[in-house]
Design goal:
This protein is α+β, with helices and mostly antiparallel strands and 820 residues long. Helices cover 61% and strands 9% of the residues. It has 29 helices and ten strands.
């Protein structure tokens, strides 16, 4: 290794220029990255729910729907002013860019109608065909029509007539969330007044708020970076050239963002916290290298030798740490969710670039720059703390660095407390919630405007929809097509079953909405004919009359094509929480298990659950399995790499214990805060798993280095904690100092994840700096103790001195006072 590093320094000019060229190239691609949201990328592509959604979304409507509710404060909606607003909202929303004009529904929509019987014909009339009524007589006539035909406006006008909604679907590929959000806010401002309130809901609105808060998120990002640089200065500012980790960290960021631009990936506004975490990780490696470089420079007095010795000492643990970091994020790509795959690939390149930037470019850069000079009287404590506080901090530090080598109750509290923490973490992980657990979006606080609007609308109308698709291998008029009476009766029976579930607020199918009422109407409204006709030809005739009498696109809400091979059943769901979706799926499975065989339609294939509810259900199917696989693979990789790096299975087992100890604390925290595993939280948890183990790797590597120079284990632990331990704490402070500002984000996701990351970093630091050294001293494993007593630069400490070490009373010999 030493020969390799020195050879690299001899080739520093071409290697350095090559890295600069690649960084500039990546900078070009970084400039091409957009801050944008792709709704499709948040769900697993290969899940059956997603596949059926992709197949039928163009005819049955997409999941990108917006709900605009108008609610009156006094009276009901049947007044001239409010009805005029409803009619105006219909026209405004139908004119928005990207809207599907065939999927805009409201009381004022020409696609919402009622049936009247006249001699020789059935007439379909919309409720506000001639515009909003202006006189009291017309208003009361409209109100009467709504009361009589309540079923036709179910889900559009509330039962108490105090609210009405406009539902609109948008094309996903051409949707600009930022533009749409601004247009909706302008419409809201235009139509609200003292008696009419307007509320907005839907996935485009939720995602649009990310752009609304983007300037504030940008300010928090800037403050976080400034805090990290300030804390970096406090750590390394006693030397000139303290800013070098900022340069290498920024270059690593360019590599990661440049790779995203090269691949055409976008950054969602709410996911900007992830690139920040990756940048903080790059900073930490640079800080570790720079701190060790100052130690070596002080010892050797030659910057070239210091660069070589620092890289020789730091590259093995640094490489192991970076591999652990990469392992923490790369495996989230296994779930097949595009946004997680993109984060995994970008994060891998971003973290891997630290190897080039910190352990190749940073020593090359330092070899060209002047020798850093130490500024007298500018230590961290001297700059920020009064004398009395300095004394307290020094005493506390002395107590902490001697804590792992002390015998007595403190050691057992650390050991058995860590075991209990692991057990609690495993139990919490086994009971981790998957998906959303409350009404609204967990991306924002319950008091946020987006959630207040969602809660207001949910009082009157369902906000989520799930599809059940019947697909037949037979076409009309052959037996088994979706107009077969057996299939229609299956739809009706399913409706009766689903209405028993309080989570299902509405049910819509071709059988219940069209066939049954039309059959009754054509038989002079005799109630006994409200049902499925026994003759498939009559069912076909009713379908044809509906097709011929409605506007293009109407029939496609139920049956996608004229060969009648598929039909869509729509379930209006109370919410898309994990409990709701899993119970609805289970009820559907139980119904078809009991009734499908007896329906005698072997040509029929059933698909469920799709629509927006099905998309979230698909994510839930993947997330728990993905989290389990991710943790399993990360722990296996860390075990394997540590076993190779330290040439000991016992060492690998110790690191595995520390990793589980620190990172299963995430599940304890998430259970305490009632946070579920979602598409948004998985990458943050995964990063925490990989990033925190670095602390233990650097600390144990330094202990082993000190042992290899002939020191006893106790003195090696104390020296390692005073040097590398201090660097680890500085790294922890820099990361936490930057993450801290995200706790003030308007996005609850940022708040929860920043607190979770600070908790993870703290538990990892305790595990790496206190628990692991305590276990080493207690167990005295061979992978470090085999070096004890080897001839080297430092003498072996006597048994008498070892006893003083264990009591915390030992004064280090002069030969051990210095550190490498």
């Amino acid at each position: 290794m030493r020969v390799t590093v020195r050879s690299l320094l001899k080739l520093r000019a071409p290697v350095g220029l090559a890295l600069v060229f690649l960084t500039v190239l990546m900078g070009y691609w970084a400039s091409r990255v957009r801050i944008a949201t792709s709704f499709e990328d948040f769900f697993p592509k290969n899940d059956p729910n997603i596949e059926i959604y992709q197949k039928f979304r163009r005819v049955y409507g997409g999941a990108e729907t917006v709900t605009v509710m108008l609610r009156v404060k006094h009276g009901d909606i049947f007044n001239a002013n409010t009805l005029k607003k409803i009619y105006g909202l219909q026209q405004e929303i139908d004119g928005l860019s990207g809207v599907n004009h065939q999927e805009v529904f409201s009381l004022a929509s020409p696609r919402v109608y009622y049936t009247t019987v006249v001699p020789g014909a059935l007439l379909l009339k919309d409720f506000m065909s001639s515009g909003a009524p202006t006189n009291e007589q017309d208003i009361q006539s409209l109100k009467h029509l709504v009361e009589v035909h309540r079923g036709e406006v179910q889900g559009l006008v509330s039962n108490d007539n105090q609210a009405a909604v406009i539902h609109a679907a948008f094309g996903e590929r051409w949707l600009d969330y930022h533009q749409l959000f601004n247009q909706l806010q302008a419409i809201k401002k235009k139509y609200e007044d003292t008696n009419n309130e307007i509320f907005l809901a839907g996935e485009p609105v939720v995602r649009g708020y990310g752009y609304y808060y983007l300037p504030l998120i940008g300010i928090l990002f800037t403050l976080a970076v400034a805090a990290m640089i300030f804390l970096l200065y406090l750590r390394l500012g006693s030397y000139t050239m303290w800013w070098i980790p900022v340069i290498t960290g920024s270059c690593s960021a360019l590599w990661g963002i440049g790779f995203a631009g090269f691949k055409g990936y976008d950054f969602d506004p709410l996911m900007l916290v992830v690139p920040f975490i990756l940048s903080a990780r790059d900073f930490s490696h640079g800080i570790q290298w720079q701190g060790r470089y100052h130690d070596e420079l002080q010892k050797l007095g030659d910057k070239y030798e210091a660069c070589a010795e620092t890289t020789n000492a730091m590259l093995p643990p640094g490489l192991l740490s970076i591999l652990a970091d990469i392992a923490g994020i790369i495996f989230i790509s296994l779930g097949g969710i595009p946004v997680l795959q993109h984060l995994a690939y970008v994060g891998t390149v971003w973290l891997a670039s630290s190897l080039a930037m910190v352990f190749i470019f940073q020593p090359i850069l330092m070899s060209y720059l002047p020798v850093p000079q130490r500024k007298p009287g500018t230590g961290l404590l001297a700059r920020v703390a009064p004398q009395k506080l300095q004394e307290i901090l020094r005493a506390s530090t002395e107590w902490l660095v001697h804590l792992p080598i002390r015998k007595g109750p403190v050691r057992w509290v650390l050991i058995w407390g860590s075991v209990g923490f692991v057990v609690l973490g495993v139990i919490s992980g086994a009971r981790a919630k998957v998906g959303y657990s409350s009404l609204g979006t967990p991306l924002y606080k319950p008091s946020a405007k987006v959630n207040r609007d969602l809660q207001a609308i949910a009082r009157y109308f369902p906000l989520d929809e799930g599809w059940v698709v019947f697909e037949s291998s037979s076409t009309f008029p052959n037996a088994g097509n979706v107009l077969d009476p057996n299939v229609l009766r299956l739809e009706t029976d399913l409706g009766r079953e689903m209405h028993r579930d309080s989570r299902v607020l509405g049910y819509s199918s071709f059988s219940t909405d069209i066939i049954e009422p039309f059959n009754r109407t054509f038989h002079y409204d005799f109630p006994k004919y409200f049902g499925v006709p026994s003759d498939p030809r009559l069912a076909g005739n009713l379908w044809y009359l509906y097709l011929a009498g409605t506007a293009p696109g109407e029939i496609e809400r139920y049956i996608s094509s004229q060969d009648c091979r598929d039909t869509c059943i729509r379930l209006s769901l109370r919410d898309h929480t994990s409990d709701t979706l899993s119970e609805v799926e289970h009820r559907l499975w139980r119904f078809f298990d009991q009734h499908l065989a007896s329906a005698n339609v072997p040509q029929l294939k059933i698909h469920y659950l799709s629509g927006i509810g099905g998309l979230y259900a698909a994510a839930n199917h993947v997330l728990y399995r993905l989290d389990f696989l991710n943790i399993t693979f990360v722990l296996l990789v860390i075990f394997a790499f540590c076993a190779v790096a330290f040439q000991s299975l016992f060492a690998a087992a110790l690191f595995l214990f520390a990793c589980v100890l620190a990172n299963f604390g995430a599940f304890i925290y998430m259970r305490w805060r009632d946070i579920g595993l979602t598409i948004d939280t998985i990458p943050v948890i995964s990063l925490g798993i990989g990033l925190g183990v670095d602390y233990g790797i650097y600390t144990v590597a330094r202990i082993r280095d000190e042992m290899m120079e002939g020191r006893v284990l106790e003195s090696a632990v104390v020296i390692a904690l005073k040097t590398t331990g201090a660097a680890v704490f500085s790294t922890f402070a820099v990361m936490v100092g930057g993450i801290f500002f995200w706790a003030f984000s308007p996005a609850q996701f940022h708040n929860q994840m920043s607190l979770l990351l600070m908790f993870l970093m703290a538990t990892n630091m305790v595990a790496g700096v206190l628990i692991l050294p305590t276990l080493l001293v207690w167990l005295r494993p061979r992978f470090v103790c085999r070096y004890e007593g080897m001839p080297g630069a430092a003498p072996v400490v006597s048994d008498h001195e070892r006893g003083k070490i264990e009591q915390g009373l030992w004064t280090k010999p002069e030969s051990i006072t210095g550190s490498r």
